[in-house]
Amino acid sequence: MLAKLKLVKTPKGIDSILMLSAMLILWIGNYSNLDLMLADSMFDAARGQFAGHQFALAGVFNLALNALAVAVIVLALWDAWRPLDWPASRRTALRVLALSAVLVPASIYLLSAFSGAPCPGDLLRYGGLETYARLLETLPAAASATVCLPATQASNAWWLLALPLFWLPRQPRVAVVVASLMLLCGLMFAWMQQLQGTQFFSHTLWSAWIASFLVYLLYNLLKAEDALA
After folding, report:
1. Which of 21, 69, 99, 199 has the lowest CB atom count within 10 Å?
2. Is 8 among the domain residues?
3. What separation in angstroms does the CA of 54 have from each of 51, 81, 121, 194, 195?
4. What is the pLDDT of residues 105-116, one digit of tens each?
């Protein structure tokens, strides 16, 4: 175990990026009005509903992501049984991708179950029954339990942040481009959910941060195991 931990080396700057981005998301959720400003812009006060309340594309996208996750997990299991003729780095990437497809949505859901943060559609401001509370504020004792922080609705997309690992370590620039595209896809899916009033923008950012941290941790641990093999 000690030998494995010694092999887990931190890429320069990654820890700093994770720490600074967490501080930025904390500031957005607790000290700015960005969440409410974006939710207000998506809420139709005349009709008393969010603009995307009948947006069916999000459900189709979610179904496609679930099917893709199952395919990746099956491929990883096949590789464990009959190893594919791939370089070690790509097989590691496949294992991280498959584990991320399971652990990212599960972790986000479990964390949200303890937060009790209301969704936009639950707030009095948008026709619900709950009062708005910022991230570090205490919720009223009568507040009902909800699962909106971090955002669970778009969590099925964030495991794709592990996809750029297939281009590491030989093509880091391509990996950065793919990571940017996956981040954009995740934000677009989350935007569809925000249009339905199911999550705030900062909730989305926390989900993306948690997924990034898990992918980063899994990659370093599995890469260390390969080095010891």
Report:
1. 21
2. no
3. 8, 44, 14, 12, 10
4. 999 888 887 777
